[in-house]
Write the structure tokens for this entry.
Amino acid sequence: MASDNASSVTEFILAGLTDQPGLQSPLLFLFLGFYLVTVVGNLGLITLIGLNSHLHIPMYFFLFNLSFIDFSFSTAIIPKMLMSFVSKKNIISYAGCMTQLFFFCFFVFSESFILSAMAYDRYVAICKPLLYTVTMSPQVCLLLLLGVYGMGVFGATAHTGNMLFLTFCANNRVNHYMCDILPLLELSCNSSYINLLVVFVVVTIGIGVPIVAIFVSYGFILSSIFHISSTEGRSKAFSTCSSHIIAVSFFFGSGAFMYLKPPSILPLDQGKVSSLFYTILVPVFNPVIYSLRNKDVKLALKKTLNRKIFS
């Protein structure tokens, strides 16, 4: 429930993606399809990595966690979004809205930092192959993972805390399909430049720090690849990074486009469309990117299917 400092709103109405009646049913089935693919793809990848001991290495330890984050991320957003296609008023309580915002921020920050941990893993594998098992020991991987989820908690607490200080008066219609930061700031009747500054600083940490880490890692990786004399060695090194580069570009590109620009450049309705990329399409495509472009995952899938058929 909202605090007593004049916040009279106890629930919000989520406007959804569109108010055109003709689009509700097609969009319902489209996004339900996306959600099912996300669940099957990510839980499938989690199961494959869990069942196949040859995938119990740092690269797949991080991929396992990326799949868990993507699955949870989608589950925090899509089921509530689907409600807006079937009900006239998609109502969410104040507490529910803040909870959704918390988990949304937690998983976005965790995804940013797990992608940078994966870049570091690729850097060690390509630039320091002889020291790989020592550098990426189970203890180091666990520490990196603690850092990933620690940053997730930081981002979620900072953003949700910032929103809890806002007062919401008469208008309670959130112009979005979820409780996101910018629509809530727009709705509040006492938000100031301080609240905007907090958002900008926290988002810059959440996107800026991982992007710098990824760029530095890939700077070293590229210089190492160019020192490899054989063409086969170069293409093998490139192929181990290609999936990660695609995932990084997709996630950070859409996130930066949504948050790190003045609101006047991109109205909220277009913002809804760009946020579809990292809230819905990224969790759908990550397992596809990592499984179709990865020999180890394909081999594990064949082995697992053969086991099931012969048993």
User: Anything to note?
Assistant: Residues 94 and 284 are 29 Å apart (CA to CA). Residues 1-6 have pLDDT under 50 and may be disordered. The first strand starts at residue 11 and ends at 14.
